[in-house]
Amino acid sequence: MANMPGGSYRTSSKPDNDIYTALVIIACGVVGLAIGYVIYKSIELLGSIPSFKL
Question: pTM score > 0.70 for this model?
Answer without folding.
Answer: no
